[in-house]
Amino acid sequence: MVAVIGLSTACAKPQMWYQAGKGQADYDRDAQECVLIASNFARQATMTGSSEDPATYGQTMRNCLAAKGWSVNRPLPLTPGQGNEQTAQRQVPPLIVVDGHTAHAFGSHLSLPPSFTLLNSVDQDTVDARGQRLTFAREQTTYVTILAQELMGQANRFTPTPYLAKPPFFLYQQDAVSVASKTEPRWSTFFGMINDEWVMGLGSFLLINDRQRITVIVTEPLVAQQTAPEKGFRLSRQQFAAVDSFSKEWTAWLAREVVPPAPSWWARLVPQL
After folding, report:
1. Domains identified in the chain, total number
2. Per-residue pLDDT tens for 238-249?
3. What string of DSSP letters covers 10-63?
4. What is the β-pairing status of strands 129-138 and 197-209?
5. Is 128 within a domain?
6. What is the mean pLDDT of the chain?
7. DSSP letter for each residue of 142-197
8. Do 58 and 103 have their domain in common?
9. Which of these three, 67, 82, 117, is where a domain ends?
10. What percent of the chain has pLDDT over 90?
11. I need a labelling partner for 176 at 20 to 30 A (CA). Which of 24, 40, 51, 132 fits?
12. Are residues 58 and 126 both part of a single domain?
């Protein structure tokens, strides 16, 4: 069965969406969730937040529905003798596979809290690398981005390195894992301002091998400064407390929920240098 649905917005013509094996009830359930996400994004895109930006609403709504498997293109009917095997041969397997609230990539897996919703999935392929980026959101305040990258060029290599906090962000804390340890996430927590709004975040690299890497980024709004920072500091006392709490929460989650792949039999026999 193929669901055929008309989606209406205040500023757009009705749009038909299709998904094999899904019906109207399936679409209504997915669309209801996407409407909440798109509405929140659209309000954040305006100066006051009291109205919605139509372009942001429409783009976010489309991204959200597409991430849930809906398409504006009607599926072509299968001809006799044509099956899923032929279709699968024409498709490149994704780098990240999502099963419930767990993302699998390169033999590792990462479990997200049930309160997070998959917002979009974007391929980021280049001449020298394959990439796939997933973005999850919770209540439109906390965002988790997972980026899987696989280098294709023979000369390209990933090296063990901590996540770097680049301007406009400043480093708050960094893990103390030895650079020689290639099987543990290398994380950094940071803070800064974007468009006059304070943001705090965590960034982490999980080096699978010198050709494959997973990047995890978590961001949340940071409370504005109610009082001036003490001399020599960028953050107020209230902001320090918020960033410290955020850092403890998400580094603990990273250590608990990001599971690296099991070492190969060769790695277990050969000492790691």
Report:
1. 2
2. 999 999 999 999
3. TTEEEEEEEEET--HHHHHHHHHHHHHHHHHHHHHTSSSSSS--HHHHHHHHHH
4. unpaired
5. yes
6. 80
7. EEEEEEEEEE-STT------PPP--TTEEEEEE----TT--SS-EEEEEEEEETTE
8. no
9. 67
10. 37
11. 132
12. no
CB under 8 Å to 42, separation ≥6 — which residues? 52, 53, 54, 56, 57, 60
pTM of the prediction? 0.65
Q: 139 with 258, same domain?
A: yes
Render pLDDT for 88-113 as a digit per residue (tens, 0 to 9). 444 568 899 998 889 999 999 999 99
- Quick one: which H or E segment has residue 130? strand 129-138
Q: How far apart are CA 247 and CA 202, in angstroms?
A: 7
Spatial contact of 149 and 131, defined as CB atoms under 8 Å apart: yes
Q: Is residue 80 in a domain?
A: no
CA 70/CA 2 separation, integer angstroms: 11
- Please give the residue that has the higher pLDDT: either 123 or 219: 219
* 192 residue type, one letter: G
Domain that holds residue 11: 2-67
pLDDT tens-digit map of 184-208 = 678 999 999 988 899 999 999 999 8
Q: 139: domain CATH number?
A: 3.40.1000.10
* CA 27 – CA 5 distance, rounded (Å): 8
User: Residue 160: inside a domain, yes or no?
Assistant: yes
